[in-house]
Amino acid sequence: MKIALMDSGIGLLAAAAAVRRLRPDADLVLSSDPDGMPWGPRTPDDVTEHALAVARAAAAHRPDALIVACNTASVHALPTLRAELEPDLPVVGTVPAIKPAAAGGGRIAIWATPATTGSAYQRGLIRDFADGVDVTEVPCPGLAAAVEQADEDAIDRSVAAAAGLTPTDVSAVVLGCTHYELVAERIRTAVGAGRPGGLGPVVLHGSAGAVAAQALRRIGASPAPAATPSTRLTVLLSGRMSQLPQRALAYAEGRMLGAVNPVTPAH
User: Fold this and answer.
1) Which of 97, 139, 153, 166 qualifies as a FRET site for 110, CA 20 to 30 Å off?
2) Which of 19, 47, 68, 70 is catalytic?
3) Does residue 70 carry a catalytic annotation?
4) Is 140 a catalytic residue?
5) Do residues 20 and 52 lie in contact, with contact meaning Cβ atoms separated by under 8 Å?
6) Considering the entire predicted model, what is its pTM?
7) pLDDT tens digits, residue range 34-91?
């Protein structure tokens, strides 16, 4: 079994680690676009063009499924990717986990990039899945870029700024960018810092686990967490066979992947 994941950068690590936990025996292909990132400020047509290039590079390695581990690419490029690659290659997009967050009851916040915050896309998800729920949209300028560069100080500043815009009584925070899942515990700590004592801990809702599980369902595979781990990890940087970027090892998810195949390309 081989699962490919694509993103502009290392935001795909969270979903890759989720796949690894569900199916340690799966070979992984990680395809990103360091030459073209960030994708967020690009026009929808530009995002689609770059996403297609990254997806084609991954597809050349003949995976059984492709996870689009990027909210921006899922919004703008998913129909085009599916039109080109399916049905031969199932394509699984990423959607912010607004529905499960709203189902939990209470007030929720959605952390997302400034381009996504307030967008018609996000407002549509809120309307469809959180109608009647008290929702606060929180823009997080610079957070994805700080996570991508593993810039500790910039991450702390961006998380603190977003936490300052988050109501202290929220019951859940939706992580609306795949990069944010790599610093989930920092976000939990920052949001909980000013929380009234009578409230329980904040629940964070990411998408990595859901997209990993969906990819397995699409190919008719079941979780097998006790399976013998695969040692095959293929890393593609703007289409070039490469190594797992050193900055990926700043995160637990990257270290998990690097421990199986320590920062070397598979051929």
Assistant:
1) 153
2) 70
3) yes
4) no
5) no
6) 0.91
7) 998 888 778 889 999 999 999 999 999 999 999 999 988 998 899 999 999 999 999 9
